[in-house]
Amino acid sequence: MVIEFSKYQGLGNDFILIDNRHFAEPLITPEQAIKMCDRHFGIGADGVIFALPGQEDTEYTMRIYNSDGSEPEMCGNGIRCLAKFIADLEGNSEVNKSYRIHTLAGVIIPKLETNGEVTVDMGKPQLAAAEIPTTLDSVGDKVVAQPLEVADRTWSVTAVSMGNPHCITFVEDSEAIALEQIGPLFEHHSAFPQRTNTEFIQVVKSDYIKMRVWERGAGITLACGTGACASVVAGVLNDKCDRSCTVELPGGCLQINWSSADDKVYMTGPANEVFKGKY
Ligand code: ZDP
C-alpha cells in the first residue's frame, strides 16, 4: 500500500505525519512504523504521528508510535508538529487558532502563534509515584531527589509524568554524561515499570537550563517537549529553577511556563514541515 506522509520537525525531533482523519485506527502498523523511521533503510524519524478523528469534545485524536514501535501516551514536540499539520490539511491560516486534541494523556491544546511557533497547554504534571509510574520512594506525595542505583553510581533523581514518565537528574555538566551507555540503563530500570524517558539537566541560571535526553523507545533525540516540561517541574520542586524557564536542547530552545495560576505547564516552540512524500 502506498501511503502519503508529511515529514515535520520541532527542534530536530522529527516525525512522519499521517492524515488519518477518516479512520479511527492508525493506517499503518507499529512494524511498518519501525521501518519508516529507519534512517538508512526508511524515511527516517523519531516517531510516526497520526491525525485521527476527535473523540468526545475534541476535534482530533493524536496517536504516536516511537521509532521502536512502542506507543507513548504523549509527545510534546510531536503535538506542535501535529497542530501545524492539521492547519495545513484544513487550509486554515487563522491566527491564534487552537485545537482540542485527544491523547492518551488527556486533552492537550496546541495554539498556533502569529510568529509561526506553537504554544501547547500540556495539562498538569502528575507527581504521585503510582501515576508516573515508579516504585521509588515519595517525599510527601512527590518523588523528589530520590536515590537510584545505575551503573555502579547512586544518582539523585526526580520523577515526573507529563502523561508519559520522566526521570530527571541534575548534573554539573550535561555534556559529560555518557548518554548512550547509561540512557538505556535508566530507561529499563526496574524502578520504572513502564520504562522511562531520562533527562540530564545542567542549571545555567534559574531561568535557563540545558537538557540532554534519552527517550524511551527512541534513544538520543535532539529534543523532547514532554521532557523539557517535566524538567522545569523537577527544577521547581528541587528549588533549582523558576516556573518560567528556557530549556536549551541540542536542537534549540523551548520556553516552558509551569503556571501557578492553574498548575498547567505551557510549552512554546517551533514546528515546521520539511517535505511531503509517498511511501
Ligand atoms: O514517552 C515516550 O516514550 C517518548 N519517547 C515519546 C516522545 C516524546 C517526545 N520526544 C516529546 O517531545 O515529548 C516526542
Descriptive overview:
Helices cover 16% and strands 39% of the residues. The chain has four helices and 17 strands. It has helices at residues 30-37, 76-90, 179-187, 225-237; strands spanning 4-10, 13-19, 47-53, 60-66, 101-103, 106-112, 118-121, 143-150, 153-161, 165-170, 197-205, 208-215, 219-220, 244-249, 252-258, 265-269, 272-278. It has a 17-stranded mixed beta sheet that branches. It starts with a strand and ends with a strand. The model has no long low-confidence stretch (mean pLDDT 97). Residues 13, 66, 72, 75-78, 164, 197, 215-218, 221, 224-226 line the site of (2S,6S)-2,6-diamino-2-methylheptanedioic acid.
Nearest-angstrom radius of gyration? 18 Å
Query: How many alpha or pi helices?
Result: 4
Largest sheet: 17 strands, mixed
How many domains? Answer: 2
Strand element count: 17
The CATH superfamily of the largest domain is identified as Diaminopimelate Epimerase, Chain A, domain 1
Helix content: 10-25%
* Structural category: alpha+beta
Alpha-carbon distance between the two ends? 8 Å
Ions, cofactors and other ligands present here are:
(2S,6S)-2,6-diamino-2-methylheptanedioic acid
The CATH class of the largest domain is Alpha Beta
Strand and helix order: EEHEEHEEEEEEHEEEHEEEE
Tell me the β content.
35-45%
Choose one word for the global shape: globular
Mind telling me which CATH architecture of the largest domain this is?
A: Roll
Low-confidence segments, ≥5 residues, pLDDT <50?
none
- Taking all residues together, what is the mean pLDDT? 97
Instruction: Briefly note the CATH topology name of the largest domain.
Output: Diaminopimelate Epimerase, Chain A, domain 1
